[in-house]
């Protein structure tokens, strides 16, 4: 056989042609299996005490630490676009070993909750991070024992009080993200004991000790040295993620969350198949930063990557997605 005179290979024409359904944009759109809807997107927002101007977060281009005022503009926009909700994080001016700013009714996060609920409480689900890492000077998600370990049970009693402070501020749903054993049960019973039966719990159930939280630590001015491996899960464990989700439901979680999202699509799917409550996933700071950095270099089609990212998290089984792209994605999805 030579290149000039190839022997024609016998071609058996395919009987089944999946490409037929990909022929036109209209047909592709018609047979698309699923798509995220803006109502399923939740925008995480950072509000920093004492700021007079929004402050860009270097490692998350396009995301800022808000002032109390700029945060209200951001939530208005989120409401106009029909997002599902917002998740609020507070960055206090002063941190201490016990994270006492978290309990202070005049603390940055509690004030922000009241502001946001006042502004858009009738249109969005207002959620707040329930964790101590933004408030502690050592940066851990709980209080420490004298020898420097994270004290699970003493942390639980702080979480119980923190939940009450947030409920009192008017939050719709608290998001315990500290991975302490028993946190959902303690928070549920503390809320119920004071009549806050309607305040929900979005439990960060399967939260991994992930490298993809890197940029977030700048966003909350974290002072953490070391890691969170004694409380956040080993990234290689999927059964354990399902176990944590089931436990949280038993303890009273209304939604369970898997976090991060992209490296854990299998865990999202497994949790979705194992539970009967809505499943959320957190498209975290490092996932955001990777796409933004590649796009800034011209290495990736940014908008397509955003929609593919969120679409794949949804396809894996997430009913609700927390994403720094929530506003922009809502625009793209309704364009
Ligand atoms: C803990 C918390 C973290 C994130 C959300 N809640 C950081 C951590 O556990 O280290 C990370 C979110 C992100 O990376 O986008 N309060």
Automatic annotation (TrEMBL):
GO cellular component: cytosol
Catalytic reaction equation(s): 2 5-aminolevulinate = porphobilinogen + 2 H2O + H(+)
Domain of life: Bacteria
Keyword field: Heme biosynthesis, Lyase, Magnesium, Metal-binding, Porphyrin biosynthesis
InterPro entries named in the record: ALAD, ALAD_AS, Aldolase_TIM
Enzyme class: lyase
GO process terms (BP): heme biosynthetic process
Cross-referenced SMART domains: ALAD
Cytoplasm found in the keyword field: no
Residues reported in the UniProt entry to bind 5-aminolevulinate 2: 285, 324
E.C. number(s) listed in UniProt: 4.2.1.24
Keyword Hydrolase: no
Residues at which Mg(2+) binds: 244
PANTHER family per UniProt: DELTA-AMINOLEVULINIC ACID DEHYDRATASE
Known role: Catalyzes an early step in the biosynthesis of tetrapyrroles. Binds two molecules of 5-aminolevulinate per subunit, each at a distinct site, and catalyzes their condensation to form porphobilinogen.
Family: Belongs to the ALAD family.
Subunit structure: Homooctamer.
Protein name, per record: Delta-aminolevulinic acid dehydratase
Organism: Nocardioides acrostichi
Gene name per UniProt: hemB
């Amino acid at each position: 056989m030579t290149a000039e005179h190839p022997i024609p290979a016998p071609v058996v024409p395919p009987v089944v042609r999946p490409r037929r359904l990909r022929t036109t944009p209209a047909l592709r759109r018609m047979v698309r299996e699923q798509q995220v809807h803006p109502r399923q997107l939740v925008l995480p927002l950072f509000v920093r005490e004492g700021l007079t101007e929004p402050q860009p977060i270097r490692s998350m281009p396009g995301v800022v630490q808000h002032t109390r005022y700029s945060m209200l503009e951001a939530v208005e926009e989120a409401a106009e676009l029909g997002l599902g909700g917002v998740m609020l994080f507070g960055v206090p001016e002063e941190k201490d070993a016990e994270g006492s700013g978290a309990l202070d009714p005049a603390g940055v996060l509690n004030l922000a909750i009241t502001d946001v609920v006042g502004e858009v409480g009738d249109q969005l689900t207002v959620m707040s991070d329930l964790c101590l890492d933004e408030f502690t000077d050592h940066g851990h998600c709980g209080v420490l024992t004298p020898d420097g370990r994270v004290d699970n049970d003493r942390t639980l009693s702080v979480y119980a009080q923190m939940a009450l402070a947030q409920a009192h501020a008017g939050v719709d749903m608290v998001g315990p993200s500290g991975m302490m054993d028993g946190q959902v049960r303690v928070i549920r019973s503390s809320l119920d004991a004071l009549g806050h039966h309607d305040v929900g719990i979005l439990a960060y159930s399967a939260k991994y000790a992930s490298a993809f939280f890197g940029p977030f630590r700048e966003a909350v001015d974290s002072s953490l040295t070391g890691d969170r491996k004694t409380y956040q899960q080993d990234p290689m464990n999927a059964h354990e993620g399902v176990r944590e989700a089931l436990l949280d439901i038993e303890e009273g979680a209304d939604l369970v969350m898997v976090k991060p999202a992209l490296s854990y699509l299998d865990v999202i799917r497994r949790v979705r198949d194992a539970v009967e409550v809505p499943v959320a996933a957190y498209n975290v700071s490092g996932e955001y930063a990777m796409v933004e950095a590649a796009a800034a270099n011209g290495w990736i089609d940014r908008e397509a990557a955003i929609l593919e990212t969120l679409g794949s998290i949804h396809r894996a089984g997430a009913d609700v997605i927390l994403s720094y792209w929530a506003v922009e994605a809502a625009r793209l999805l309704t364009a």
